[in-house]
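Sequence and structure are kept together here, with a separate record for every protein. An example record follows, reproduced without changes.
>
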Amino acid sequence: MTTPKALANVLRATVFCALAALPFSMPVAAQEVAIDFASHLGPSGPQMQVFKWWADEVKSRSEGRIEVVNFFYSQSLVKAPDQLAAAGDGRATIVWTTPSYNPSDMPLATITEIPFMTENVVAWGRALEELYATNADVKAEFDQRGVQLLFAPPVGGASIGAKMPITKLEDLEGMKIRAFGYLSQALAAAGASPTGMSGAEIYEAVKRGVLDAYSGVIFEVLGDLKLYEVGPHLTGVGMGAFSQGVFLMNKDIYDGLPDDLKAIIGEVSKEASLRSAAVMTEAETAVCDTILAAGGTATLLPAAEVERWKEMLGDDILSNWIAEREARGLPAQAVADQWAELVAEYEAETDYTSGVVQCAERSPS
């Protein structure tokens, strides 16, 4: 359903586009569209730093015809699970979200949740951008929600934070661990008790003993959430990428822009995607500094334990993902095959070492 605000934004963009087509002797509005941006993250994280750069560049290169006028952080406009709908109906013009929050709405895009495929989260994000650009079924999923994918910056891989380091799979047995999606299935297979809750609720839940540990939190935002205070020991568990963030724009507004502005958005989005890896790595280093200074540690689950875990799971998670979607008439097998090829392709082209691995190398033994 189109909201009054969405209609106003589309009409504003249409009016400005029409004015721009009039003879040059007539005054032309300086701004094609004013953008309201929303995210569940706070303003200091690397994804938000990259988006601020995007906003500045788009404004500069468009000579002010596109401008982000409002930044709504920390769920101040809409809650995290509502961000996809908000971008689609125009309550927000652009959002940063993840398909993990809306798996029933984006069933094919949740291929980004399958664990143990790669530790290279930079390749993961680039693979999604290309999947969107080259796979009509995946793009249709976004189109049906009324959104245009701008770019998919990398987010940190899976780790577990607890009061003690995790050194073997048996340590997970009976642990109440915050998790979501297919990460929950992997933890349950190891004997843990996964519990769903928002990132904002984790700190108090661990502090009060409602949770024993947390997962499903990207490494670079651990500092903002201060989770190292209640779960100071981070363990890299070898799952690698487990989710993927996306910057989405309202499709009606995007489609209503003239070609030159679409070209600017595309150009800046591509550059933002490329620079996001370096920004994330800097943020991960800073988070590690904070964790170690507070007396925390970072360790890695031994490789033999990771292999045990993978053998325990087999291909069940991916096979179930495919079967569930094929039963709904979706081309999941084809998407999974293309996804594996793209991830392998971008792994060969990119170089990335995860934040928790780098932090483990610096952590006192």
